[in-house]
Amino acid sequence: MSFYELWAMYPRKVNKRMAEKAFSKLNPMEQEQAIEAMPNHLAYWKANDTQLAYIPHLATWLNQYRFEDEIVIEEAKQNKRPELPWYSSEELTIKKANEVGCPAYAGEGWQQWRARISNKIKQLEEQA
């Protein structure tokens, strides 16, 4: 893989010439190490929802040998999308209604149906 492939992979496209210069200063083994480390760094930034402004320029990442950093991606961070409450969308409301056995009635509005579902959930919790 060449510098250009590394550049294409990198999310923050800033100062390409400096990045290329930093890459060329690395010996072939270090270049390979940097390339091999990139997918893990990309996954780490994604798992942590790192804003683009906080991802270092590629030249900085290379000059500081950041590819040697030990990156640990916590499993919880990989799946950190918060679970929405069942009443937050029509899709989740329908799913919850099916779970608790509370079908919609003809002519019933969403608010009415959600109130019935909520009552059904309370009944089931009291029975448990």
Kindly list the characteristics that best describe this protein.
128 residues; mainly alpha; 7 helices; rod-shaped
Précis, in short:
The chain has 128 residues and is mainly alpha-helical. The chain folds into 2 domains: 3-78, no CATH class; 86-127, no CATH class.
How are the SSEs placed, and which strands pair?
Blueprint: H1 3-9, H2 16-25, H3 28-47, H4 58-63, H5 75-78, H6 90-100, H7 110-127
What does this structure look like?
The chain has seven helices and no strands. It folds into two domains: 3-78, no CATH class; 86-127, no CATH class. The model has no long low-confidence stretch (mean pLDDT 88). It is rod-shaped. Helix 6 runs parallel beside helix 7. The protein has 128 residues and is mostly helical.
Main sheet summary: none
How much of the residues is beta strand, in percent? under 5%
Structural class assignment: mainly alpha
Please tell me how large the radius of gyration is: 25 Å
